[in-house]
Design brief:
With 274 residues, the chain is mainly alpha-helical. The protein has one domain. Helices cover 74% and strands 3% of the residues. It contains 13 helices and two strands; from the N terminus they run ααββααααααααααα. The protein has a two-stranded antiparallel ribbon with strand order 1-2. A hairpin with a 3-residue loop joins strand 1 (39-42) and strand 2. The radius of gyration is 21 Å and the shape is globular. The two termini are 24 Å apart. The chain crosses the membrane at residues 20-40, 60-84, 111-136, 151-170, 177-199, 244-269. This is ABC transporter permease. Keywords: Membrane, Transmembrane, Transmembrane helix.
Length: 274
């Protein structure tokens, strides 16, 4: 495993574009978290300090940081599809196979690298969240601090599932731009199918069906925290209540899609004439 990861990292680090995107993908969420904890002066009219609004209190901070940090995954998505696109355009895939790398090892090298990226990003977000929370939170008891740490697991699986989907599209289409464009196509298809179910059945059933779609299932891992913040400010408004918890059934769905995407990527490579 280490040998395969080292082989892949060496390729990525020699590519300037990939190097920049990897650094941005790691640094951007961490920087945004740090900047969001600072005092912002709006032209001397007033000063906004998000920490005073209670959004960095434990345990809600785990929910907030993982939700917004997940938007940076698109930088890594470009790296993932580029890993495959460059293999085809530079003919390095065929050369690797000639040099003795099996097709299974080739796919595993990509997947292990994806796992590594997801793990490092999760650790960085976890450390940043913990540090900011310990500084700003009114609650520092261990039982409260680590109450919703499962959002980190959801964040990790969200990255892993999304990158595995990008890997499959890149293997299927062979071109980075097409693979990224097909993510938009898939998103549109999911919502069109959901709309048909809403029209033909009912809204709740349509959402249940949608929860099994690839992109929707990944999105469902971490629900938006804005409504939850409103609930803390207006606890008397019962209509704001919603289920924001991390459900392991949702994680299981994403695990299933991740395994399927990696398997299909391998099957495509195995059957393809290089």
């Amino acid at each position: 495993m280490i040998r395969l990861i080292q082989l892949e990292l060496q390729k990525l680090w020699l590519n300037r574009t990939s190097k920049v995107l990897i650094l941005i993908g790691f640094v951007l969420p961490f920087t945004v978290l740090i900047l969001s904890s600072l005092k912002i002066n709006f032209f001397g009219l007033f000063t906004l300090e998000l920490g005073e609004l209670g959004i960095f209190n434990f345990p809600i901070i785990w929910h907030i940081t993982t939700y917004f940090a997940a938007f940076a995954k698109f930088f890594f998505a470009i790296v993932v599809v580029s890993m495959i696109g460059n293999e085809y355009s530079n003919k390095t895939l065929k050369q690797n196979l000639i040099d003795g790398l099996s097709k299974k090892e080739f796919i595993l090298s990509k997947f292990f690298t994806i796992v590594l990226f997801s793990l490092i990003a999760t650790i960085l977000i976890g450390v940043a969240t913990f540090c900011i929370g310990m500084y700003y939170s009114s609650y520092t008891e261990a039982s409260i601090v680590f109450r919703e740490v499962e959002f980190l697991l959801a964040y990790f699986m969200k990255l892993l599932g999304f990158f595995s989907l990008c890997l499959f599209f890149a293997m299927w289409l062979k071109r980075s731009a097409f693979a990224l464009a097909f993510l938009i196509v898939l998103w549109l298809v999911e919502w069109i199918i959901t709309g048909i179910f809403i029209w033909r059945t009912d809204y709740e059933f349509a959402l249940d069906v949608q929860s099994y779609f690839p992109l929707a299932s990944m999105s469902n891992l971490i629900d938006q925290p804005i409504q939850r913040l409103m609930m803390t400010k207006f606890p008397e408004k019962a209509d704001l209540a919603y289920d924001y918890a991390v459900h392991f059934s949702e994680i299981a769905i994403v695990i299933g899609w991740t395994a399927l995407f990696v398997f299909l990527s391998y099957r495509l490579l195995k059957k393809r004439d290089l």
